[in-house]
Amino acid sequence: MGTGLNSRKTRGALRQSASISLQLLLVLLAMWVALRILGSAWSIIWPVVIALLLTTLTWPPARFLRRHGWHPALAATLVTLLFLLVAVGTIVGIAVPVGAKSGELADQVVAGINELRQWAAEPPLKITDEQVSGYLDTATDKLQASVGGIATATLSGVSSVVNGLVNTVLALFLMFFFLKDGPRFLPWLGRQLPGRLSADIPTVAGRCWETLGAFVRSQALVGLLDALLIGLGLVILGVDLALPLAVLTFVTAFIPIVGALFAGFVAVIITFVTNGWTDALIVLAIIIVVQQLEGNVFQPMLQSRGLGLHAGVVLLAVTLGSSLYGIVGALLAVPVAAMMAVLWNYLREQLTETPPAATEPPPPPADPVPATADAPAAPA
């Protein structure tokens, strides 16, 4: 005959489960409210996030200048100007070589299209010029029928571009102020908070700043590896504009998903119009292999080492962020996960019981005096 359940233990387990469930629901509700507040203030938060990411890149030279006696405002001004010069120089370094070869590229594009039409006219496709004209007429009719949607999408794209430019300018100004007044922020924040918060929040914020810097450095190293491998492949194949394409690969590495797709698309197209189908397919294979190595080897390993996260956690964070919030989610997934880990580790430090200080053991008793003729032995 089986033993029955203990009613007292069962009620206690149910009460404890209900209490934990209620507390979990309250925590989830608080998180939902916080996310809604962040969503409503996203137009302000997004430039701040961009400015923080840029500040992690530009803070080391600013810190060097400050340590060597430069005034904070002067150091921040010089570093901001140098950053703008590097950014503009990178854009010019990519655009000028492409513009210089634009005429040659246009002729090669036309030749490539003619070669493609000749290939399509042969077996097994056997697509004639009349069929191509029919396809073009059909596509033209569909475009004319969807002019309204195209105009709406164009206006939406223009609005997104304008918002992006405004956010970029605002982020640059914020970067300047972060470089100038950043070290004074945490002490000021500590003075504004009461009780333990005056020590806890500045400590967590400082650790999050270090984590964010580690993320940007690891992302830059991943982009450098991508640029070196893809640029080496382009140089070996003798592709024109190999250096600008390598620089483009490094710059776009900071934009997840879209950056890699854009840089790879440009590299394949230029290789096709300059070197032909064979080299274009080889470049496509190189880009696919490098991107797979980046997403599954380089990025998880470097970011897990720099951020203190397991490589599997990095992969899951990027997957979850991109599925929930798209490109922005993929960009912020890893640093957000790292900051959550920082917060969790700090909470564990504060909630862990400090073991009592080990007391030194008492000294061993003195050796008994041996019995002699002058000193009788102790009685048994």
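(ticket continues) Second input and output from the same batch:
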Amino acid sequence: MSLLTALSTSAIFEQQCPFLVSDYVNKHIGNHSITIQRHSSANASLWHRSLDDAISLSKITYGNSVRVRSPELKGIYHLQIVLNGHCRWHFRDRNIVLSEGGMMILNPGEEVDLTYSEDCAKIILKIPTSIIADCVINHGVMLPKGGVKFAHVPQHISHLKTLSGLVELLCIEAESEERNDSMFSPYQALLANKLLTIFRNNSDIEIAQNFEIKMFKQIDNYIDANIKTDVSIEELAEVSNVSKRTLYNLFAKHRSVSPKYYVKQKKLAAVRQLLQAKPYGIANVTEIAMDYGFIHLGRFSSDYKKAFGELPSRTLKSHAVA
């Protein structure tokens, strides 16, 4: 199978009005509006599959020269791969044109403004922020303030056989009659890891192992060992054997956050892992949050959603044992 023939049994629309396709995209892929640049003949087609209510795969062609605008992607990334024709992304400082095989990632919170050529066809992978965030955390790297952001630097799928094969495999599994949604979790982690490695981003996932990284590892170990306590800046400075000023400078340089913010995010990550595991005896989110020192529950829920793209109650519910 090639990406051109991917999702062949998952047609939602074939040779239909572009605005019918647009309405479906608004509901299932991402909020947007379209403007037909030339004519509005019924040449639009869409193929779509969702994987375990998380990642979704779509193949779309409008069959017209179409301009697509969206105020922002909310809580999701879009990996977009051009299969045919070309697509022009309009940014404030420049335009980027991708032709066949070109691909790029759009970030949550960014305005989307792009134009399809009449013969443009694309595959779009919709990826929740929580999947990327979990991958970063599992690498032992701190989430950047404001979340992971990918640079607008195009790649070409022909140079990345492993990623191309993974996307093809996801398409095959999504259409399998024997599919089991629980099987897609390893694929999610593998996809997130590939994207973080291939596309330049602000997560520091490939930071060189130097003295300061070893120092952060020592700090991490101390925080992990005392994760349920109110770890102070003074304690961290003593553990790393530096002044408080040096500690702040180190965090600003390597994590772009303050030590206090870092500790809070580590606590949130620990709570998330516990909610996902849902061990015997866990009654509710409030019990877990307070056990980790989150007294202001409204603020906790807000911080949790900013970090992982969903409320803690949703995490607990989605990982409940049947």
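Agent notes: The mean pLDDT is 85. The longest helix spans residues 259-277. Closing as not reproducible unless the customer responds.
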